[in-house]
UniProtKB/TrEMBL annotation:
Protein's name in the database: Zinc chelation protein SecC
Taxonomic lineage from the root: Bacteria, Bacillati, Bacillota, Bacilli, Bacillales
InterPro entries named among the record's database cross-references: SEC_C_motif (IPR004027)
A Pfam family the protein falls into: SEC-C
UniProt-listed PANTHER family: ADENYLATE CYCLASE-ASSOCIATED CAP C-TERMINAL DOMAIN-CONTAINING PROTEIN (PTHR33747:SF1), UPF0225 PROTEIN SCO1677 (PTHR33747)
Organism: Paenibacillus foliorum
Cross-referenced SUPFAM superfamilies: Sec-C motif
Domain of life: Bacteria
């Protein structure tokens, strides 16, 4: 009888597993189908050269509303689709110079490449970048003669070409510097208020940056790069799960100054997907490669995940658990070796909660003996054990085709 009951228990467990997994699989399939449909919508048939009216006519009412909001066209929210198209045809050329004055060098070069080719060509942009340009009425995607094409409407092309002077390119250069400095500051500090960020950027460029000029540039960059999160009280790095918690940690250390990074360090850290590969970082990469048949890319990705775990407050034991889920650590010698490297990585990693300092720098500081060590904060939505095979730069498990950090990790 016990055996029979045992078999029944197993059968029930399997039945329950199927019951639980079935909706998850269905949801995953539905999301994949939605992504496929979205991708198909992104590449409709297109004839070039193309006018603004032709581009707008192929959009949904929601897309048109996005353009209206992005450009700050007011008083048109209740219009029907064709009426809204008419308004946008008139307003986009008028509002466009104001928008183009907020872009940086990356976006300028994308527009310039298309403009130099008559306003249409194919460039390998990410989906969020395509949406950024579409929702500002600048660049539209489609299929021409069976090939993917990006096109600038003729009215927009004319406006850009008339603006593309030496003084305009100087504005683009200025914006580029602001964006990279801002992204670099948030990479190391995690979260800053708008006043803090503006003040630090002003310091590094050597002049007072007007908030009215600075804020629109950073807000546009946040949408394009997705490296910055816009918070109610400032900005956070895109990897920060709780900007308010980082802010609180900063406030608990009023006597600890922000680490004095150089302008060059911040510019470097302001590049998208920047990784601070310190000596301890590289040493752990080498240790993994020495003991396992993995290439440098794989080893580097594992260590990058460890650094991210440190930033969000994971304990060294959780980092070891994560690495054990990825690599076969089957001896005390390997465990000791990994822990030595993990502790060194933790102590030399510049951390958000201690204002860009590393724990080693604080512990060795003779001038500030009473500065507390980092008190890691716990991010409830992160669990290294259950996310053990998904790196931030890995394809998302939902099947969207996007990087994890730009999909379900958001």
């Amino acid at each position: 009888m016990a055996r029979k009951d045992g078999k029944m228990d197993v059968q029930l467990r399997k039945k329950n597993e199927k019951t639980l997994l079935s909706p998850l699989a269905t949801a995953k399939d539905m999301r994949r189908e939605m992504e496929i449909k979205e991708e198909e919508k992104r590449w409709p048939q297109m004839e070039v050269p193309i006018t603004l009216g032709d581009c707008l006519a192929g959009l949904t009412k929601n897309d048109l509303s996005e353009i209206r909001t992005s450009l700050g066209v007011y008083g048109a929210s209740t219009l029907k689709k064709q009426e809204l198209i008419t308004v946008l045809e008139q307003q986009i050329p008028i509002m466009l110079p104001h928008l183009l004055n907020k872009i940086d060098d990356t976006r300028y070069r994308i527009i310039k490449q298309l403009a130099s080719r008559g306003g249409h060509a194919f460039l390998p942009l990410e989906s969020n970048q395509l949406d950024y340009f579409k929702h500002r009425g600048i660049i539209f995607s489609g299929m021409q003669n069976g090939k993917k094409t990006l096109a600038i409407p003729q009215e927009v092309l004319q406006c850009f070409n008339s603006m593309d002077t030496g003084s305009y390119r100087e504005t683009v250069r200025r914006n580029t510097e602001w964006v990279k400095l801002s992204q670099g500051l948030l990479f190391y500090y995690g979260h800053l208020s708008l006043d803090e960020l503006n003040s630090m950027v002003s310091y590094h460029v050597g002049m007072n940056v007007m908030m009215s000029d600075y804020l629109p540039v950073i807000e546009e960059a946040a949408w394009f790069y997705e490296e910055i999160q816009i918070e109610t009280d400032g900005f956070s790095n895109s990897r920060v799960w709780d900007g308010e918690e980082v802010k609180k940690e900063h406030l608990t250390r009023p006597d600890l100054p922000f680490y004095p990074f150089t302008k060059a360090q911040l510019i470097a850290a302001g590049e998208p997907d920047f990784v601070d590969r310190t000596r301890a970082y590289q040493a752990l990469v080498s240790f993994i490669m020495k003991n396992y048949p993995v290439d440098r890319v794989h080893a580097d990705r594992l260590v990058e995940e460890c650094v991210y775990a440190i930033q969000i407050g994971e304990a060294p034991s959780n980092l070891l658990q994560f690495l054990q889920s990825q690599l076969k650590i089957d001896s005390l010698e390997l465990i000791k070796g990994f822990m030595d490297h993990i502790v060194m990585l933790n102590n030399t990693t510049r951390q958000w909660v201690i204002k860009g300092h590393s724990p080693n720098e604080l512990s060795s500081s003779r001038n500030k003996p009473n500065i507390p060590q980092s008190t890691p904060f716990k991010a409830e939505v992160i669990d290294m054990a259950t996310r053990n095979k998904v790196g931030r730069n890995d394809p998302c498990t939902c099947g969207s085709g996007k990087k994890f950090k730009k999909c379900c990790a958001k």
